[in-house]
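Notes from hallway chat w/ T.B., transcribed later so I don't forget. T.B. wanted the structure written out for a chain they're using in a teaching module, and asked if we could keep both sequence and structure tokens in one place. Agreed to drop them here.
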Amino acid sequence: MAKASNAYLPHVDGLRGIAILAVVIFHAFPESLTGGFIGVDVFFVISGFLITGLVLREIEAGNFSLATFFARRIRRLAPAAIVVLFVTTLAALVVLMPDTLMLYGESLAATVALHANYYFADNSGYFDGASYTKPLLHMWSLAVEEQFYLVWPLVMLVLATRGRWLLVSVAVALLLVSLVHAELVLRRNPEFAFYSLTTRAAELLVGAVLAILVGRHGLGRSLSRNVGDALGLAGLAMVMVSLVVVNERWTFPGLTVMPACLGTALLILAGLHGESRIGRLLAIAPLRLPGLISYSLYLWHWPVIALATYTLERQPSVTEMSALVAASFALATLSLVWVERPFRRPGGALELSVRPAFGFVLASTALFAGIGLGMKHLKGLPQRYPADTQALLAAVERKRPLPPGCVLSSKEPTLYSFGECGAGAAHMPKLLLVGDSNAEHFSPFFEVVAKREGFAGISLSRGGCPPLPGYYGRKWVGHKVKRCAVMHREMIRLVETTPGLTHVILAARWPRHAREARLDAAAFPRLGARHDAAAASLEAQLEATVAWLRGRGLNVLIVDQIPDFADALPTRCVLTSDAASAGRCGIARAEAEGRMRATTAVLHRVATAHATGVYIYTPLDALCTPTRCPILIDGGLVYHDYGHLSVHGAEVLTRMHAGGRPPQIPAEFWRAGRSARAEARP
């Protein structure tokens, strides 16, 4: 067993092969292996086993050095990662639009700072439909691993010399603490739980505990081949069932990932016996060869898939995706031969001693961090495009300046007055426009229309937060729950303490909120509604909010969704087309209506449930022809991104409304006065 722990373990490469194949299949063909993302957790266990075993042997032999350990990690991981980052960054400069390139720059800086996991926890979900706009999303797992190894060798250095039983006891305790922490965090902050070191440490510690027990304490020494085969078969079943059964709707990681982790540990243990049938199975070439290139394949496959999908502006076909996977395998093989092995070969020309290794990684970190931050500072480098294209982009990015005296709060949630703002008008608004980023992109339109009707008003908005007090999304991270709660409290305060308020406009990306809807049991009763299982739907929450507003005598206008391009990138389509073909950019009206149909029906049911005082505004007719929803109207880009109007788009709505063209805000909406509100008060 001691010899096996120091020697090459072909069955571990077979395990790596299973893990990387699962991850690649999940990213390329997610419906065919719904739990393929668990391959990352298999990697974590393998890493914990191998690195802990290596460090422990060196500590007990008295020749462990932290500097040497980190230099070895640099030689093992940095060269291939730097090559991939260099090539991916060059491709991003060619392919990505300015807004996406800005985000890429942020993620690049976070990646080289070993902070990618927390960056993506704050900025995206691993299972988001638009994950292909994030070519470095997969780097989160490398950040978790390296953060772990900044701490774990120090713990081992302190405890290992006092006996392995103390070390294994501490490792098991930390494992259990991490599991409990993961389960607690999953209930209120699932995105953080997915990405965080503290919730993922348990997986690495499973491998670490196995490494400590194997060897001197002889775990498994007396196992017969039949017992080893039984353990290996059980482990293989646990891993394979997890890969097939688990999907993105499961709470993850926490206890959900433990069968796969424990199964991986059993497979490693069973394979340490040379006569194990499971060990020989894992060592077959079709599994072992992908395992040999697993690190480079993990680095290459996601940027290849993501950038190709972004360029195509659609999901690749099966044939196209298969070609992308083949290209990833080819790049990984070249990377292993020409990058990984030369730097790892002892005594080779490219072997880095301790000081050059640290200098190499620090210089690379500074370079890529500078490039990433430069991309952000230069707003995605629109200078890459011709002058007319830059002008078009500038129009999309243009922010409407607010007149002096109108801004009440520039911090989120954004709060400002409009209409006849200033001169005390901010304290006498008749109209409240409230919602998520949709309220913000509609604000130029509603401000003009409200002023024409003689209304001063207040706009209250916060990205991602619908105007439904008590609402929160199923996948929201904890800080977003708090951010939206702040907006909801401000909405309630404005409604209940603004004496002249008579009208409220609710705007949101309703289809998204319908998919994510959950409810805060503590906040919902403040609207006078009963909290039960049925109230967890968007319709029930919207109805409760509208009933609360109507109970205070307020007229309510619900704004339906604009055409939603899902994960498409219409701006890129226009900018990569000539004048003659730009008209093809957009989506069929039937497709746009199909994406909205369910929530449009919800909005109308809520409105018709009230005899008076609740109205619907549907901007679709202004933005679409009878057959198509174009991107360009009157020579300008109507959309800022997949689901938000540009300022030009809001101006298009304003001109159509002023010209009497549909859609019109129902005239009855404007006819409520303060008396109705006063009479409704208790």
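Follow-up for T.B.: The chain has 27 helices and 13 strands. Might be a good example for the class.
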